[in-house]
TrEMBL record:
Pfam families: Aminotran_3. PANTHER family: ACETYLORNITHINE AMINOTRANSFERASE, MITOCHONDRIAL, AMINOTRANSFERASE CLASS III. Belongs to the class-III pyridoxal-phosphate-dependent aminotransferase family. The keyword Magnesium does not apply. This is Acetylornithine aminotransferase. Keywords: Aminotransferase, Pyridoxal phosphate, Transferase. GO terms for molecular function: identical protein binding; N2-acetyl-L-ornithine:2-oxoglutarate 5-aminotransferase activity; pyridoxal phosphate binding. PROSITE patterns: AA_TRANSFER_CLASS_3. Its EC number is 2.6.1.11. Its cofactor is pyridoxal 5'-phosphate.
Length: 327
């Protein structure tokens, strides 16, 4: 459709990609990326032997069959065993990854530049550069899952830009169409060349209405002024959260980038979420002891400050952790 073509052109012009495939969700996008990686590996001469997909400890890539096997959440995985074959979770350590890739059976490694469900763990620029080099050394593709951390949330339109690298495949979804069902797979020319008509498809992906909305959203989120706003206020937010940690003594660690932050708590994170909600602050957990903060990208510093104050009050409302509390 014309809106789909315009959206694809917008994404290609602002990325490494030469082609885009539209679908309906993030999990769909990752499933499609797995298929494309395997097709590319076969076309590149790897045959059926180079078929494995590796994900990293702490990963979340979806709850469909292939993506569930790449998701490191035992509670999500256990009821559906046996999981899809040829998809494995490995430690984030680069030496462990190199060992897993040594046999030459890996088609691709998938990683989130910032792991959301896994505790808001930022893969720093140096790590991502080494990961990119490692995949090239072993003849494998690098898939970056920016479903949660992409499209402005880290302060750049694509999170990978901050590492100065280019992946072979990139997946997008959550903010893409302002709440409407939309996902996308961005691919390099080499990957696109390996795909033939009919290799992958979707009934509703990239429909004209959703694509029109997604183009408007993408244009807004790519605005340099908005991205600067996220970078500057995100840095302030990190300092403010560190201050909360110092003052309350109820926080183990703070980490994040832009408008995506994780706060590790001594008590159960769900208890803090409940008290914060009572006070008017909406939070979500990212593990038993991690709060995930994902403010809208238009949030002002004044609103961030109000939210930080409510968070501090919610933390202070916990029973004393001194002398026998969790820690």
């Amino acid at each position: 459709t014309e809106p789909g073509e315009a959206l694809a052109r917008f994404l290609v012009e602002r990325s490494f990609a030469s082609a885009v495939f539209f679908c309906n969700s993030g999990a769909e996008a990752n499933e499609g990326a797995f298929k494309m990686a395997r097709k590319w590996a076969r076309a590149a001469g790897g045959g059926e032997g180079r078929h494995e997909i590796l994900s990293l400890r702490g990963a979340f890539h979806g709850r469909l069959f292939g993506t569930l096997a790449a998701t490191d959440r035992p509670a999500y995985r256990l009821p559906f065993r046996p999981l899809a074959g040829g998809v494995s979770v490995v430690e984030r350590d680069l030496d462990d990854l190199a060992t897993a890739m040594a046999a030459g059976t890996v088609a691709a490694v998938i990683a989130e530049p910032v792991q959301g469900e896994g505790g808001v763990r930022v893969l720093d620029a140096g790590y991502l550069r080494e990961l990119r080099a490692l995949t090239r050394e072993h003849g494998a593709l690098l898939i970056l899952d920016e479903i949660q951390c992409g499209m402005g949330r880290t302060g750049s339109f694509f999170a990978y830009e901050q590492a100065g690298i280019e992946p072979d495949l990139l997946t997008l979804a959550k903010p893409m169409a302002g709440g409407l069902p939309m996902g996308a797979i961005l691919m390099s020319a080499e990957v696109a060349a390996a795909m033939a008509p009919g290799d992958h498809g979707t009934t509703f992906g990239g429909g004209p209405f959703v694509a029109s909305v997604a183009l408007h959203v993408a244009e807004r989120l790519a605005d340099p002024a908005l991205l600067a706003h996220v970078r500057e206020n995100g840095a302030w937010l990190g300092e403010a959260l560190a201050g909360v940690a110092r003052r309350t003594g109820r926080v183990r660690a703070v980490r994040g980038v832009g408008y995506m932050w994780g706060v590790d708590t001594h008590e159960k994170a769900g208890d803090v979420v409940a008290r914060a909600l009572d006070a008017g602050l909406l939070l979500v957990t990212a593990g038993d002891h991690t709060l995930r903060l994902l403010p809208p990208l238009v949030t002002t510093r004044a609103d961030l400050a109000r939210g930080v104050g409510l968070l501090e009050a919610a933390l202070e409302g916990a029973p004393s952790i001194r002398g026998g509390g969790e820690g």
